[in-house]
Amino acid sequence: MEFSSKLLENAVYEISQLPGIGKRTALRLALHLLKQPEEQTSHLTSALGKLRSQIKFCSNCHNISDVALCEICANSKRDAAIICVVEDIRDVMAIENTGQFRGLYHVLGGKISPMECVGPQDLTIVSLVEKVKKGGVSELIFALSSTMEGDTTNFYIFKQLEGVTVKTSTIARGIAVGDELEYADEITLGRSILNRIPFENSMKA
Amino acid sequence: MEFSSKLLENAVYEISQLPGIGKRTALRLALHLLKQPEEQTSHLTSALGKLRSQIKFCSNCHNISDVALCEICANSKRDAAIICVVEDIRDVMAIENTGQFRGLYHVLGGKISPMECVGPQDLTIVSLVEKVKKGGVSELIFALSSTMEGDTTNFYIFKQLEGVTVKTSTIARGIAVGDELEYADEITLGRSILNRIPFENSMKA
């Protein structure tokens, strides 16, 4: 792409650094901003700048938060003995939306992935292990993606906790509610038979 | 979506104002920026801010340009008597890439679209008509999208030029090079038969 303007070229380059956005989309977005009132661009840039420079993480669960202790951790009605281990804030939001969990979270900030150069030291695993060793935690629920990396991360944390008395569980894997059996993949279907649950339990929630 | 942070919520809201970007994608982009070094965000925001506040348009063709007269208009080797009328800078870039046009451009900044509240006064039509009336222009090539709005805009400019001696043409519509006839739509195929060209001409370029 040859640009008639360095300003435009530079803006397109920076926008196309975002994941999933190519040069053509970046150009479309830049031209869109040029057609909109100048305030839209200044609102966007100031929101991004503030986000990046002022963002804080909850000192207990490492979730993104504007205050030192996030709303969930500060809520005395929630059960601090049950901790749900998740990758990032999106998982917290997804689980909160279900209204089925009243414990606290621990946000790892990702999962162990040698392919993407993410090791245990890049995640908040040490702080999780310390928290559990300190006592007061009765159960850890692993709620990571059901992938090789998610399983590796679960197992790594599990090994770190050897000798510590804490119940560990993972969220159930199985056929999604509303799904037809014939389209389910073999591994999921196989595991859902092995890990079958009492019929009475399936009526809950 | 319920956010644990106002900063994050605000950033997601502003990103999702961009066309084709929903709340989920906006959240993914915001979290991506948080994981990258702080410089990436500052480079992005400064590039966008500069683009919006310092952008200039060529005084002759209205294309985006860092200088008062764009490179194309300032190039004495180009034929100022032939003007290609386009919607925006992307069309200029696309036609320049073909290497088949040695005249100048006139960038309208859009096309007449009552649905999107774009009237003739929002485009650079007056300046185009003045330029042609001043003389020195032998041909106008309309290179707008082949849509209702594009055709309306072409026709509006054509009417404004009544009584002015200038040749007007539109870029050829027809079967794209490499396309199979059976998949072409009827209107395109029908027009390509009506507007057939001498076989010798098809061997050029």
TrEMBL record, chains A, B:
What are the GO MF terms of this UniProt record? DNA binding; zinc ion binding
Zinc finger C4-type: from-to: 58-73
Q: Which GO terms describe its biological process?
A: DNA recombination; DNA repair
Which SUPFAM superfamilies does its entry note? Recombination protein RecR
Q: Does the keyword Transcription regulation apply?
A: no
Does the record bear Zinc in its keywords? yes
Q: Which residues are in the Toprim domain?
A: 81-176
Residues annotated as signal peptide: none
Give the InterPro entries listed for this entry: DNA_Rcmb_RecR, Rcmb_RecR, Rcmb_RecR_Znf, TOPRIM_dom, TOPRIM_RecR
Keywords from UniProt, A to Z, are: DNA damage, DNA recombination, DNA repair, Metal-binding, Zinc, Zinc-finger
Family as reported in the entry's similarity comment: Belongs to the RecR family.
Briefly state the protein's biological role.
May play a role in DNA repair. It seems to be involved in an RecBC-independent recombinational process of DNA repair. It may act with RecF and RecO.
Q: Which PANTHER family match?
A: RECOMBINATION PROTEIN RECR
Query: Per its record, how is this protein called by name?
Result: Recombination protein RecR
This protein's encoding gene: recR
